[in-house]
Every structure is written in structure tokens, then in C-alpha cells.
Amino acid sequence: MNVSIHPSPVSGNLKAPPSKSSMQRACAAALITPGTTVIDNFGNSNDEKAALDIIARLGATVNKLTNELVIASNDFIFHSPVAEKKNVILNVGESGLSMRMFAPIAGLFNFDIVFTGEGSILKRPMNFFDEILPLLDVEVHSNNGMLPVTLRGPLQPKNITVDGSLSSQFLTGLLFAFAKACTAPVSITVKNLSSRPYIDLTVSVLKHFGFHIENNNYEVFTISPRKDSPSTTVRYTVEGDWSNAAFLLVAGATAGELTLSGVDMNSSQGDKDIMKALYDSGAEVVLKNDEIFVKRKKLTAFQFDATHCPDLFPPLVALASYCNGNTSIKGVSRLLHKESNRAIALRDEFKKMNVEIELNGDVMIVHGGGVVKGAEVSSHNDHRIAMATAVAGLSAKGITNISGSEAVKKSYPDFYRDIASIQKAHAGNQ
Ligand SMILES: O=C(O)C1=C[C@@H](OP(=O)(O)O)[C@@H](O)[C@H](O)C1
Ligand SMILES: C=C(OP(=O)(O)O)C(=O)O
């Protein structure tokens, strides 16, 4: 599918979409918590749908009401006879988090579970599971470290050491599985943990559901058995998404003005650091009540370390394109195994828009402040590349046509509708 972005100033109000990271974790927590979970502010992205489908296939009952999801789970699903659960195939779509978080949880069951997926996920590394899960008594068969992956548990929590440099998502999965199954305190030691704020989010969701995790300096995580009544009702409100709010805020900062609601300044999401980049670029930023007002001013280049918030690279590049001077963003190595190789995708697509990007080891340098030109660009089937080029296109000279624009469904299905609603000089994109 193609979308054309017609340049136009923006102004108005938008609400941030729900965070798929928050929602997927809530689904996993609901599955491992006996009783009822009521989730509100849930989203409708492909990654969230994948998580809901997975918990339903693993035995939770999911009821979608207009404004809330009611999920019921119980301990029996983990101990039901093998014969009742044959041919369990879980399709994670393109979600790295659903794959890496639900694999250790699926390892808690005592029968074969097959993980499959689509598109970009088929090329993303899963060899962590081949190495680590057998140490926890789970039998693993993968396709040379990639999907499809078949697991057979039950997983036994044990003190282990893992490498956290490739992705934090593997640790997230182990924390969920250990939280569910441990019968005595047990520790996970992690070396070189990346994307640390996502682990804060994992710990905060697990705590919300009554589990006990202690984080010692992102090096040792101690998980203790939960003491509670057998059945509970937990209410959880999905947080607004800072990762996608970043695109909207950058649209305001580069193409006019915007008032954004629906994000929490105290969230554990690391992508709230987009605020630092906006301040450093010279954009006008005003916080009032629970809203953020952002307005274009003369923008200048800035420096940013995105090692622990890699999803900010695409909106930061869109911002830096309009900042006079050379912006440097650290953490390029973290982009290799996302939905696309995002460093290359950003360099190649922004070049078509007349923005030079240099990749210098772990640092990306964006040469900003020139004329950004509308162009024929590709999303590389990556939602964040589609959104970055769309936002850059709002103030470009000429129309930007994005092929593979439907990639946004992975995290923000209403993205183009929301952008069209704040465009003042154009009736909308198509
Ligand atoms: O846990 C999560 O919700 C996520 C963790 C990050 O991945 P890595 O830990 O692989 O960097 C991030 O890029 C991804 O979009 C979502
Ligand atoms: C990398 C992403 O997600 P995931 O790893 O969960 O597929 C993303 O949303 O940018």
C-alpha cells in the first residue's frame, strides 16, 4: 500500500496511542495470574492482537468489551493433561516481544508448543533460546536460531547467567516465567543489559500483578515466590505510548504546533527521553497539566545517546533533518536486528529526501538544516521507518510517497488518520 504525504503545517490536539509494550506485558501477566484481569485503554495494533491470540491459545479466556478487556486465567491450564493440548501453534506475527516474552512462558507447559511468525520476525535471532532454555530443562528445536521454534517444558527456574546485549526481551520472558514458577528465591545474572528501561517496565507490570522481583543495578534480578490468595481481580490501564508519541511530538516541533495528551511523564518507558531531544533542539516545549505543547522554533543540532531507547532513532532522525548542523545519535549497533536494519534503512530513505546520514561505528550523524525534499521512499516493511519518513514529509519540499505504508499496523494502525487530522493546508493523505 502507498500513502502520499502532502506537505502542510500542523496544529491541533492528539492523544498518544496505547503502548504495545505495556499491553503485551499485561496480556502475559494476565495469563500467569490466576483470576480475572480487566485491562483498559487497550490498543488494536498487530503486535497486541498477536499477544491476545497467544494467551487465548494457551488457555486464557479473553472477552473484548467496548472499553475493556476481561481476561480469565487459572493454574489448571499449566497442569492440564498433555492429551488436551495437542498441536499448539502460536503465531507471533512480526512481534519480537511476543516471541521472546512468551517463549519462556510457553516453556512452563509440559507439551510441545510451536512458535511461528511472519515477515521480518523470520530473520530475527532467537538462538538465545537454543542456548539458555535447555539449562532450565526445556527441550528446544529451532531453525538454526530462528523461527519456527518448538519448545517442550516444563521449565525449572534455576540461578543462571545470561547475556543481555542483543535484546532485553529475552530477559523479560525469563522474568515472567520465573515469576510464575519459582518456589524459592532464584536469581538471573545478566551481562551487558541493553534497553534497560524496558526491564523497568517488565518489573513494574509484574509488581502490579503481585509478583516479586528485585533489580540489583540491572546485573542481578532476584525473583521470589508470590504469596497471595488463589484468585484475584487485577485492573490494569495500558500506558500511553512514548515511542509513537515521539513521532507526533516531532511533527509538532518541525511542522507547526501540537498539544499531546495521554502520556505519563513518570512512565518507566525510556522513550520519554524524546523530551530531552526536543528541549536540546530548541523546540518550544510547554508542559501544562497532563499535556505537552510543542511548537516549531529555530532548530539546532543536538547530541543523544539512544543505546537504551533504540526505538527513538527514527523520530530523532526526522527531527534532526530540520535542525541546523550535525546531530549525533549514539547506539547504532542496537538497530541491527529490528524489523529492518534501521540504520541502513534510515540512511537510504532519508538520502532520497536529501538528508545525508553518516554511520560512523556506533554513532549516526545526521546532516540537518538543508532542504528536505519529498521523494519516493520505502518503509522496508518497518513501521518506524514509515512513520519517520511521513513526519519528515510534512515540511518537505514536494510530496513524499511511502510504499509499504501499511507497516504502521504493527504498532499504530491509526497513525495516518491522526496525522491527517492535524494537517491544516491539506485535506488529508491517501
Ligand atoms: O520490551 C519491549 O517492549 C521492547 C524492547 C526493545 O527491544 P530490545 O530490547 O530488543 O532493544 C524495543 O526495541 C522494542 O520495540 C520493544
Ligand atoms: C522492535 C520493535 O518491536 P519488537 O522487537 O517487539 O518487534 C519495535 O516496535 O520497534
General description of the model:
- The chain is α/β, with parallel strands linked by helices.
- It has a domain at 2-17 and 242-422: UDP-n-acetylglucosamine1-carboxyvinyl-transferase, Chain.
- The protein has 13 helices and 23 strands.
- Helix 8 packs parallel to helix 10 and helix 8 runs parallel beside helix 12 (383-393).
- It is globular.
- Bound molecules: shikimate-3-phosphate and phosphoenolpyruvate (PEP).
- Phosphoenolpyruvate (PEP) binds next to helix 4.
Mean pLDDT comes to: 96
Largest sheet: 4 strands, mixed
CATH fold field value of the domain at 2-17 and 242-422: UDP-n-acetylglucosamine1-carboxyvinyl-transferase, Chain
How much of the sequence lies in strands comes to 15-25%
Rg from alpha-carbon coordinates: 22 Å
- CATH class (first level) name of the domain at 2-17 and 242-422: Alpha Beta
Helix content: 25-40%
CATH superfamily membership of the domain at 2-17 and 242-422: Enolpyruvate transferase domain
What does the overall shape look like?
globular
User: Which ligands accompany this protein?
Assistant: shikimate-3-phosphate, phosphoenolpyruvate
Can you give keywords for this protein?
four-stranded mixed β-sheet; single chain; Enolpyruvate_Tfrase_sf; 31% helix; binds phosphoenolpyruvate; alpha/beta; globular; binds shikimate-3-phosphate; 13 helices; RNA3'P_cycl/enolpyr_Trfase_a/b; 430 residues; 23 strands; UDP-n-acetylglucosamine1-carboxyvinyl-transferase, Chain
